[in-house]
Amino acid sequence: MYKADDSRYDNGMQYERCGRSGVLLPKVSLGMWHNFGSVDPYERSREIVRFAFDHGVTHLDLANNYGPVYGSAEETLGRLMDDDLRPYRDELFISTKAGYDMWPGPYGNWGSRKYLMASLDQSLRRMHLDYVDLFYSHRYDPDTPLEEPLQALVDIVRSGKALYVGISRWPLEATRIAIDYLRRHDTPLLIYQGRLNMLDREPIDDGILQLCHQEGVGFISFSPLAQGLLTGRYLEGIPDDSRMAKAKFLRPDMLTDELMAQLRQWNDEAAAQGMSLAERALRWILEQQGVTSVLVGASSTRQLEQNLHCLA
Ligand SMILES: NC(=O)c1ccc[n+]([C@@H]2O[C@H](COP(=O)([O-])OP(=O)(O)OC[C@H]3O[C@@H](n4cnc5c(N)ncnc54)[C@H](OP(=O)(O)O)[C@@H]3O)[C@@H](O)[C@H]2O)c1
Fold it and tell me: 60: closest CA among 78, 42, 39, 83?
């Protein structure tokens, strides 16, 4: 039987208030997009999650379609709840999302009330949970009136199936409307999830980060290491066991000469400061005003351990 490390809150994790809310999130959170699906060895996934929790990483982020196969990362979490984490449920902040294609037909995608409600029910069954701490609209749906997903989020909180709500990848004006709508319906937007890293500064350039900061909404950065580009992973080629070699979201043609030169320069600058590139990349995000947490992925406990150095 797993027993969490007694020193999990004393070994370096820092917690940041999420916007103007009562919630504190760890500055480093763990995402389960890759490495926790049915194609991955359960014992390795288990080891990473245990390591995370033992080091104060209380926030685990999922989505209905994480795997592969779709749904299987949530099933892994469900198994972990049964095997290890149930006694610690109240110490965990678990999020899931709906917004991308999940099941066939017109009701398994985008932003309808029908989809969001049904998807959360499925997610709870897969994760063996009664409620999630945070439920996200995973993307903006340009063809559905904004009030529909927003009212669904409000009603989901009122139903007790989620404690807080968030949005991910919504454009600026829609985010402004969401903040206002949710506030007027007593369900303040807790957090915005967007891609922010040294290679992709869109949330800064388009004003989302500043809006969140002004409005008291937290911001969590996904793919903070640009899926591994902002680490030493690809500086000497493409390792066989890397995401670029295995998965479709990171392609070898992204490794242009220009990018490699930039990565090498950043790597050298980091080394001169006694840091790894990953550590520097994570520190850079955490230094931005308004950022609550970085949502890292990891295919080993060693990677997670290295990434936690950004808090030292
Ligand atoms: N809202 C959205 O639309 C959205 C989209 C994407 C992601 N997310 C969330 O963000 C989370 C993180 O995304 P991500 O996995 O792309 O994050 P990331 O931290 O940018 O990339 C993680 C990957 O980088 C490599 N890596 C990490 N640390 C390393 C280290 N110290 N040294 C060498 N390589 C290292 C590993 O890849 P290898 O497999 O090569 O080892 C790892 O799986 C996801 O799990 C998900 O929760 C949300």
Answer: 78
Provide the pLDDT for residue 1: 87
Closest C-alpha to ligand 1, atom 45: 31
Residues flanking ligand 1, CB < 6 Å: 31-35, 61, 138, 168-169, 193, 222-228, 231-233, 242-243, 278, 295-299, 303, 306-307
Q: Which atom of ligand 1 is nearest to the CA of 247?
A: 39
Residue percentage of the chain with pLDDT more than 90 = 99
Query: Residue 206 is part of which domain span?
Result: 15-232+276-311
**DSSP E strands, the chain:** 15-17, 24-26, 28-31, 59-61, 93-98, 132-137, 162-168, 189-195, 218-222, 293-296
Contact 131, 163 (CB under 8 A): yes
Residue 266 tokens, joined: 């950043």
Residues of the chain above pLDDT 70, percent: 100
pLDDT band (50, 70, 90) for residue 167: very high
What is the domain count for the chain?
1
Q: Is residue 8 part of a domain?
A: no
User: Atom 22 in ligand 1: which residue has the minimum CA distance?
Assistant: 297
pLDDT at 196: 98
Is 238 inside a domain boundary? Answer: no
Examine residue 91 and state whether it is found in any structural domain, yes or no.
yes
Read off the pLDDT of residues 132-165 as tens digits, 9 standing for 90 and up: 999 999 999 999 999 999 999 999 999 999 999 9
Is residue 258 domain-resident?
A: no
Which CATH number does the domain housing residue 116 bear?
A: 3.20.20.100
DSSP H or E stretch at residue 86: none
Region 177-192: what's the mean pLDDT?
A: 98
